[in-house]
């Protein structure tokens, strides 16, 4: 399964792929895809890594698990395929982006490949899910793998911006070295959290670009 991941990630994650937990994870994921309907399509499980090489990495956004409806998930957190109705959380992300950057831009697509290609790792904690059953693969060992990914990025890279939206993502960021990276935290963009005043006004998009510019790194064209 890991043979489909970008070569730069294979290099720094090679030790993880050899560990017993990952071999067990690979076996169980293969069984799930054989016996049930799962998303994203198998070839897109590692899409977040394949759009964003290690060398190009600038920003990490952490989600929970893929969308579970037919044709929605494309392997990037908060992102859906072209032609799919923009989900409420992503609509709130776009709204904050507009308010933060002072633009009038509401994309007709919820596909975030454009961000990923610029160096934004859109990483779900669980990379797979059963059809119509949110968080149905939380019992698998995806969290062990994605915790390791976050820690390895923290150790191997410098000046990465980690955007941790909601308590779940913030717990995932426990091992980030905040002396060498920027960590921005706020509430989740879901309607429930956003309507309680925990999302809007966070200005994470402008703060991210200001930090990247300060470090001499090209900004993200959000």
Helix content: 25-40%
Specify the overall morphology: globular
Instruction: Outline the low-pLDDT stretches.
Output: none
Give the mean pLDDT.
95
> Structural class given helices, strands, pairing?
alpha/beta
Number of helices: 9
Rg on CA atoms, Å: 17 Å
Write out the strand line-up for the largest beta sheet, numbering strands in chain order: 3-2-5-6
User: How many beta-strand segments?
Assistant: 6
Largest sheet: 4 strands, parallel
Distance between the termini: 31 Å
Strand residues, percent: 5-15%
Explain this structure:
The chain is of the alpha/beta class and 222 residues long. Helix content is 40%, strand content 11%. The protein has nine helices and six strands; from the N terminus they run ααβαβααββαβαβαα. A four-stranded parallel beta sheet has the order 3-2-5-6. A two-stranded antiparallel ribbon has the order 1-4. Strand 5, helix 7 and strand 6 form a beta-alpha-beta unit. It is globular and about 45 Å long. The mean pLDDT is 95.
Task: Provide the descriptors you would attach to this structure in a database record.
9 helices, alpha/beta, two-stranded antiparallel sheet, 222 residues, four-stranded parallel beta sheet
């Amino acid at each position: 399964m890991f043979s489909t991941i970008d070569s730069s990630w294979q290099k720094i994650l090679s030790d993880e792929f050899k560990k017993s937990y990952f071999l067990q994870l690979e076996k169980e994921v293969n069984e799930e895809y054989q016996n049930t309907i799962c998303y994203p399509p198998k070839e897109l499980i590692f899409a977040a890594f394949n759009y964003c090489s290690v060398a190009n990495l600038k920003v990490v956004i952490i989600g929970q698990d893929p969308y579970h409806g037919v044709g929605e998930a494309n392997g990037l957190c908060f992102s859906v395929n072209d032609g799919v109705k923009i989900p409420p959380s992503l609509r709130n992300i776009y709204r904050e982006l507009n308010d933060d950057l002072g633009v009038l831009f509401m994309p007709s697509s919820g596909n975030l490949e454009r961000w990923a290609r610029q160096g934004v790792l859109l990483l779900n904690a669980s990379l797979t899910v059963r059809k119509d059953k949110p968080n149905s693969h939380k019992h698998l060992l995806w969290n062990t793998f994605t915790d390791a990914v976050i820690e390895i990025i923290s150790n191997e890279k410098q000046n990465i911006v980690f955007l941790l939206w909601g308590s779940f993502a913030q717990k995932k960021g426990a091992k980030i070295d905040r002396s060498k990276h920027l960590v921005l935290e706020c509430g989740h963009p879901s309607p429930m959290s956003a309507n309680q005043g925990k999302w809007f006004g966070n200005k994470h998009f402008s703060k991210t670009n200001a930090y990247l510019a300060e470090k001499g790194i090209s900004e993200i064209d959000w």
